[in-house]
Amino acid sequence: MKKLIIASTSTVHGSGYLEYILPTLSNFFKGIETILFIPYARPGGISYDEYTEIASKAFEKINKKVVGVHQFENPQEGIQKAEAIFTGGGNTFELVNQIYKNNIFSDLKKVVEKGIPYLGTSAGSNICGVTMMNTNDMPIVYPPSFKTLEFIPFNINAHYLDPNPDSTHMGETRETRIKEYHIFNETKVLGLREGSWLEVNGESIVLKGNLSARLFQKDEEPREIENNKEIN
């Protein structure tokens, strides 16, 4: 049975890395000694080792060890033997590119669908959907495919921002961009606000955190999903 936490962000305003969600993660990873970290998204272009160290320091607070998948000579073996997996945020294009390049797509999909606990934040959450096509990131590389892991039957728009009527910014809103996407695509999109996450247990998907989420469907008005509600 699938067991995932799909979070919009790793860091909320005023707190440290993963700090806001550590109580939930302590329970989620109960009985787990070592978490395999996938650092491929490289926020700000930092090295895999630097990124793994950031994750390690956060999980030390709940007595978990972290090892990076890049530390394995064979990344596939690292995925296959993992007790639990965490994919961090950064650039989704590069994350997906490296998942394909290192040939771990199939193994990652297989172990999570069999029940290995999976945590994703930001880019690591984007890859849980049907495709990565609703990421906010710049296309700095060209991955072999936009197809992602399909752990959930819709796409994620992480860090979703509502239109601000008082803003002087004249660029497109997130809602506008998602409507543009739905001209050519059918897949539903969930705008996941900061500090919110999805808890997935088998086929059950429940919104957690203090905020609602915004669900977009082709040719329909977007609707709000309240927290602690199951998404059907």
UniProtKB/TrEMBL annotation:
The molecular function terms of the Gene Ontology recorded here are:
dipeptidase activity; serine-type peptidase activity
CDD domains assigned: GAT1_Peptidase_E
Q: Say which domain of life the source belongs to.
A: Bacteria
Entry keywords, A to Z: Dipeptidase, Hydrolase, Protease, Serine protease
The record's Gene Ontology biological-process terms are:
proteolysis
UniProt EC number: 3.4.13.21
Q: Which Gene3D superfamilies match?
A: 3.40.50.880
Q: Which family does it belong to?
A: Belongs to the peptidase S51 family.
Q: What is this protein called?
A: Dipeptidase PepE
Q: Could you tell me which species this protein originates from?
A: Tenacibaculum aiptasiae
